[in-house]
Amino acid sequence: MNKKVKKYFKIIITVVIIALFVWFLIIYPLVSFKGYEKQMKEAAERYFVIKPGELPTGERIKTITLQDLFFGSYIKEDFYIPYTKEPCSLKDSWVKVRKENEEYKYYVYLKCGVLSSTVDHKGPVITLNGDEKMTITKGDKFEDPGIKSVVDNKDGKIDVKKVETAGTVDTSKTGTYTITYTVLDSLNNKTEVKREVEVVERLKSTVKTLLGDKTSFTGEPENNYIYFSNMLFRIVDMDKDNVRIVSNTDISNVNYNGIEEWLDEVFYKHLNTASKKLIVENKYCNMSVSPENLTATECSSTTGNKKVYIPSIVDVNKAGNTVDNFMEPATMSWLGTAKDKNEAYIVRNFFTNDNSAFLSFDKKYNFGVRPIITIDGNTLIKSGTGTYDDPYYLGDSKKGKPNSLVSERETGEYLKISDYLFRIIETDNDGTTKVIAENSLRQDGANIKTSYADDNKIYNPKEKENVGYYINNRVSEYIDTSYFVNKNITVPIYKEDPAYKEETSTKKYKVKFSAPNTYDMFSAATNNESYWLINSSKDNKLTNGISEIGAYMYGESIMNSFGVRVVGYLKKDATIVSGKGTKDSPYKISK
Fold first, then answer.
1. What's 125-204's CATH class?
2. Which of 150, 154, 161, 531 is a plausible cystine mate for 563, CB 3.0–4.6 Å?
3. What is the domain partition of the chain in residue ranges?
4. Whole-model pTM?
5. Is the pLDDT of residue 327 over 70?
């Protein structure tokens, strides 16, 4: 065979192969597809011969799906995507019938994999005014932005008035609402577009409404409670478009000169990450006030920008001068208001025979600290009505799920052991979780009290007849100790009055339970119960405990007997069984 013949033979082979490819990949599938289209049209015609009463009249259109034709046995064989056993789409394939020029015309649309009919099967394109997702504030008026345009690939522009709108938005209730826009083209191809409208409750809007014509909350309001970083706060007032809140109770007892450092190093450190993102740095009142000007309602001096501070005498006075003033705690709590370089003021709602809620004390003493914070006013309120039982919740803390570890939880959450409420202080590096009992130990409904056997009040869990020994060795009579582990603790010892970060010496012991440290989170009073503190002084006349009125016994006291409130460390594998971590629904845990 010469070269020309070979070349001619190769060309023929190539043409045949190409032809076969074209046949199998293009022509045969198209022939089969067109055959399916013809069968669908004929099946639809038979359908209306049998049911002529269903033929559309006027400008109406009747649609029959491929599924209808199969189930009605108008088509006997299945339609498959070429070279597969996958059926053509039953629901997306249809025949439409419309009367045109006194005759019925059939439009067939078949979808088989990548193959589909060329007949118009797409609905018009709806373009909305505004966004598909909108957010409006609760109580605001909702005005639907409406439709910008409707364009069809065959019919061209369609009058926006032909679009049907369904759905309503109730701006008096938070939630997500849906507005649905629907339009048809001349062949009844439908397009449906949805707009989501979320009605949200913004903190600033709610507070403005609650305040009305007032600038601050006054008296003892029932609707200014807010939950923040697993702690209960009270809303104080508005600062421009932001909201100031104050802790509902003291968090700890700290000497005045150590408060700012303690707020940064202890309190702020223990806020969860989501809560910190809501804080707006602000200036707070820190002016000095003479005893003759204790009714001041205007501030003359402020701090620099701070993340957290404490209330001032101005804040208390703005809330009212009555006994029922939410800014006057049942304890003795420091204010960011000095009398002079040596003394500052505390506020309390008892011992008011001098017609004043304020007393001045040496700045070295430990009294309650109620942090005050400014929150971004645009923060959304996720739930709550602002009452004590249902405070506003900002979504800044997520609850632990069953089977998750306690060590993964957040500061401030509650759990229950042996009928005692505990609160999480922090998780240690080894996975154990430091917790503090909410209340003192009790027996037969009465608080248990103990005392030091002699004048030596230095905390020592190894010395019999010492408060530390009692706590470490007797707690098992009241609390199931199997949840806890032995840990090394540090007893801080001071020359005289305890002061933040000013201990003279320390002692270390390995124990299962100890008394609270006054500088720990949540070590301040929660109820009318006394309890010992771990802080010790070389001055044996000093008590170092919390009295039944929630005041730190900063000096020599006639009280030598106090209750027992414990701190312990949970095992690192302690697991949540149920509960939400709140005071009303504490976590129940496994051992």
1. mainly beta
2. 531
3. 3-116, 125-204, 221-380, 400-590
4. 0.80
5. yes
